[in-house]
Fold this sequence. Notes:
2 domains
Amino acid sequence: xxxxxxxxxxxxxxxxxxxxxxxxxxxxxxxxxxxxxxxxxxxxxxxxxxxxxxxxxxxxxxxxxxxxxxxxxxxxxxxxxxxxxxxxxxxxxxxxxxxxxxxxxxxxxxxxxxxxxxxxxxxxxxxxxxxxxxxxxxxxxxxxxxxxxxxxxxxxxxxxxxxxxxxxxxxxxxxxxxxxxxxxxxxxxxxxxxxxxxxxxxxxxxxxxxxxxxxxxxxxxxxxxxxxxxxxxxxxxxxxxxxxxxxxxxxxxxxxxxxxxxxxxxxxxxxxxxxxxxxxxxxxxxxxxxxxxxxxxxxxxxxxxxxxxxxxxxxxxxxxxxxxxxxxxxxxxxxxxxxxxxxxxxxxxxxxxxxx
Length: 356
């Protein structure tokens, strides 16, 4: 994992486009401060898909919104840096951050209806973005908008250009939202649960579309989801979040085939797998109340493998490989040797993947 830095501008490796460094975010509530994100760090490499996965309330969406600079008014960034091309976004004036947010970093959300103006035709919503970004004439913007609608798979875009959002299905509305994001020609696309509100068949189509656009437009993608199964065939690397922290981080095959953190095990056990026999296992218990962050490993009360130290001291990151880290005391040399409970599931899923 990377070391914390403190400069407003830094030199970054050529293959790294974004660096999140010790990001800590809280929310003011009548009951006190909710510690939503607690000191997370990661590098985003150019042209990769990094998936951030975790249950609701884990801090993954707050992380995405922090990068976009669109946190709610009661949010406080307590500490940390977000470097884009070496410049700390958190040190920029709002107007300068807005320019980057509009032209370099785009975002699509879970519910397309919340991203679209229900009383404005979709064509106008697309052309307004194009005119704003590229200073196009209305005719040029309309031509490009229709091209974008075609690129994201909207049938007969010339006819549908003058329709309203309610005249589109959920999947087609999400395609319009993706087209609007692409109209700004971003380098980074943050996808925050973009398929959760869609049925399974449409989910697969949207995932395929994002993968296709990533290849064609050389996009770098942050994909936020609660479902590990969604990311299996699209992620290059995975960051598993729990209670505001990244608890495991590695290449996709490392997270799926050699997971180390008990929370990652639990997510895998609750994931529907091809030809899986028996019932899915729900994760017992509930996430902690982040008004009162736990002292040790936040997952300890839900972890049947938890040791005494898990309730007393937060585990550091232990290195598994040069690309794989996990914050669990089970990786300490003196910890008891626990056989992975997902070993058989991993073997079965790996075998089924080979059959496909």
